[in-house]
Amino acid sequence: MSEAYKVLECPELGRYAVSAKNLKAGEVILEETPFAIGPKVDSAPLCLECCCPVDGGADGPKCSTCGWPLCEECNDDKDSIVYHKQECALFVKNKVKFQNVEDSTASCMQLDCITPLRMLFAKEEHPERWDAELSVMEYHNDSRKDGATWNQDEQNVVKYLRGPCGLKDRFTEEVIQQVIGILDINAFEVRTAKGYSGRGLYPRLGVMAHSCVPNVVHSIHPSDGFRLIARVAIDIPEGEKLYTVYTYTLTGTSTRQAALKSSKYFTCRCPRCLDPTELGTHFSSLKCQKCDNGLIISSDPLDDEAEWKCTGCEFKTRGAAVQKAIQVMQAEIDMLSGMEYGPERLAAFEKLYKKYRSVLHPLHFIKTSIRHSLIELYGRVPGYEMPELPDILLERKIELCRDILWVLNYFEPGKTRSRAMILYELHGPIVMLAQSQYRQGVLSGEPLKKKLEEAALMLQECSSILEWEDPASPEGILANVAKQALEQLRESIKVIS
Questions:
Q1: Rounded to an integer, what distance in angstroms lies between the CA atom of residue 266 and that of residue 2?
Q2: Is the whole model's pTM more than 0.90, yes or no?
């Protein structure tokens, strides 16, 4: 499938990909298996095979062969071990012991070496792939030397692998730091079949340039060796640059830039990042308290210290003051997210949403984050399950979903997983509200039919996107649920006169 794109190179971007032909939304542009899979940096104790969290203390589950963390299920099925096999043999050979930890929720520095070690093993096993795909990847060692993690990596990974693990004669310090840099800058998050988080290196996808408005989406199939399939999300003409994304698109520019600078060592200059209004969405804008209709926006989105100015009056404030206010709001959201899943949590999020109404632009990313929480709660918590929701709350959920869809049309346009998930959340209240209004005599047969057909189109689009996911994943399972709901809805539509 390499004919779908070609790789070019320039001093500003380095290596990047462009479409080699006109591409249609949903068209597959590449498939690849990971070069390596393993834990993220600063991971808490986890099973080194399936990545599920484990107790890292003395009584926690350990590999019966090497003594490193391994859950009981993986321990009982040693014949199926894939990812832990080589490091297990190395630890046994060199008598490298896992040091038990007291806090199993905190990061376990000893595990920082695992994914780089698996990369080194893969380098020896697949030299042709290393030479063709990985040796040319960016790893920014010069920039990383100035960062806070260089010394940590030197101690926890480089010296540990070359010392206690006995790899001094196999891998130089430079090669190990190269591997660490490649992982830090190019790895993507993966989810295991059970939904646990790790990271994987996909060199071909890594060729795609970053943009905060990507046009390439990918799905990873853990049940098939973490095979990755990348598609274009929108129609793309021949010669257009292909973009993936290394940040969460539904955060503000300052947050995205901070993440990219700290982990990827570059400043994003995509059109969204350069625009103080974030493509007209005002996703980071505040409401002015000094005038009626003014919005406070940054004078330079790429500079955290830049002044923020009102569009309607002379009011100005420091960038640091804005960032402090956002941190306080985010802390409030984080606190509510720790509440028990129930009606009290829903009420608290609604209260917070109203609290910020006079401060934030309606589509601000803080309010968008709260919308996501409310969408998840409405229809699921006791007292607010879907059949119990009155019309006014069905309308509320519809409004919340449509607001997020509007934002996604700008930041994740086309056939994206995020869009599919919101479409599924939206179809339910549309159906239930239409049925309720029909029973009340507000809707007659034909308008009811149109509302149900609208919901059917949403389910159809949702299932067509989610069927790209691993069938065993939550998204893959939801694809089948959506298909079944679509069949039932179509049957209901048939009997409406």
A1: 27
A2: yes
